[in-house]
Design goal:
alpha+beta, single chain, two-stranded parallel sheet, 101 residues, 8% strand, 2 strands
């Protein structure tokens, strides 16, 4: 190693060991045999709005933010999913069932 200021030899570094760490990308994982599977969870807590409000994340309109995000991610991952089936879960909501006993 040489000194930047004087340009003269200033010492040496000796490495006992080193590793090269590669960060694989999406294609590298697919090529190595990994499988992709998409699961979706939807937050049904009241803080996201009512289904009757068109600006709500829970709007029954098919163009709400949840459906847009799920569609966009699903369109990308679907070709790589072996079963092309995406489980969907919900949390935070209160189920309302009609009881007809």
């Amino acid at each position: 190693m040489y000194s930047i200021k004087s340009g003269q030899f200033a010492g040496a570094l000796k490495f006992n060991d080193f590793k090269v760490v590669e960060n694989p990308n999406f294609v590298d994982y697919l090529r190595s045999g990994w499988q992709v599977s998409l699961s979706v969870a939807i937050d049904f807590t009241a803080s996201n709005g009512q289904v009757t409000d068109p600006t709500s994340l829970h709007s029954l309109n098919e163009k709400n933010e949840y459906s847009n995000a799920i569609r966009q991610v699903g369109d990308i991952l679907e070709p790589y999913d072996q079963y092309k089936s995406f489980p969907c879960f919900g949390f935070g909501g209160v189920p309302r069932f009609m009881n007809e006993c």
